[in-house]
Amino acid sequence: MTTSNFVCGLDASLAVIGGKWKPLILFHLAYEARRYGDLRRAIGNVSDKMLIQQLKELEADGIVARHDFKEIPPRVEYSLTSFGQTLAEALKPLCAWGTEHMSAVEKLMSRREPFGSKKIA
Amino acid sequence: MTTSNFVCGLDASLAVIGGKWKPLILFHLAYEARRYGDLRRAIGNVSDKMLIQQLKELEADGIVARHDFKEIPPRVEYSLTSFGQTLAEALKPLCAWGTEHMSAVEKLMSRREPFGSKKIA
DNA sequence: GCTAGTATGCACCTTTTGGTAAGTACCAGG
DNA sequence: CCTGGTACTTACCAAAAGGTGCATACTAGC
User: Fold this and answer.
1) What architecture (CATH level 2) is domain B10-112?
2) What are the beta bridge partners of residue A34?
3) Is the backbone peptide bond immediately before A73 cis, with ω within 30 degrees of 0?
4) Residue B97 CA to C26 C1' — how many Å?
5) Chain B residues with beta carbon closer than 8 angstroms to that of A13
6) What ipTM does this complex have?
């Protein structure tokens, strides 16, 4: 039903950065502009479809800017917009929190789904 | 299998608050402890299954504490743990960002799915 | 003996999301 | 001419997340 009404700002923020690869994209673009292939290699195990999709959403949301050099072979650079930079700033404490408690969170996540433990026995 | 290894703290944080209702739960528990039914009414359009599920995950993650009064009829209170409070602190700037840009984000989200709000015709 | 209200569990189903594999247009090098 | 590298698209699929509704144990009220 997508009641596009957020009760707290958290919902709005998470709607923007909620994709699987978006935090990583933000993370890598925070330093500098990057070419598409460069970004993909930096992230590592992401497929083209996913990366493009997430980049397009972030672009549509005004977080990242796409600069197409119109060259052959294709050359496209992605960077944070100023709006995206305000988001990156707001994300810093959360990123710090995650870094600080990363090992604890990793343990929790691995316990959440060890292996098929909900099978009919 | 998703290697539970986070490259940046953002991933870890989002793994914890990534549920659909978790931001809301955090939001409501940030002020004070609340009984289950109280919380459900505060959130509004959440189902029992979802709320319980999210609460259990947050509890397993050490973010919220569950206090069962062992009474009949049942009475259970949920509150933030001190760990949960550190998370809430880290979330503040992001929440502020979301609040600040809420109307913009709402527009973006509604454009993402042109169906808007489904009404029973 | 009903129903209501408490907090929660369980089975089933739908929607959303993420992932895989292929194909596009273009040019350089072998 | 075939391969590789660029950036990107598309069709199809699997898995996860979310949602609905009924069931539980217990008491109070009608």
Assistant:
1) Orthogonal Bundle (1.10)
2) A78
3) yes
4) 43
5) 94-95, 97-98, 105
6) 0.84
Q: Specify the nucleotide whose C1' lies closest to residue B51 (CA).
A: C8
Residues with CB under 7 A from strand C: A 2, 19-21, 46-50, 72-74; B 2, 35-38, 48-49, 52, 55-56, 66, 68, 73-76, 113
The 3-state secondary structure of chain A reads: CCCCCCCCHHHHHHHHHCCCCHHHHHHHHCCCCEEHHHHHHHHCCCCHHHHHHHHHHHHHCCCEEEEECCCCCCCEEEEECHHHHHHHHHHHHHHHHHHHCHHHHHHHHHHHCCCCCCCCC
Measure the CA–CA gap between B15 and A97, rounded to whole angstroms.
12
Single pTM value for the model: 0.86
Q: What is the pLDDT of residues A34-83, one digit of tens each?
A: 999 999 999 988 999 999 999 999 999 999 999 999 988 899 999 999 99
Window 13-72 of B: residues touching A by CB (8 A cutoff) are: 13-18, 23-24, 26-27, 45, 57, 60-62
The CATH architecture assigned to A16-101 reads Orthogonal Bundle (1.10)
Q: What is the pLDDT of residue B114?
A: 55
**Choosing among A3, A7, A14, A113, which should be mutated to test the B contact, i.e. which has the most B CBs within 10 A?**
A14
Domain ranges in chain A are 16-101
Minimum-distance nucleotide, CA of A45 to C1'? C19
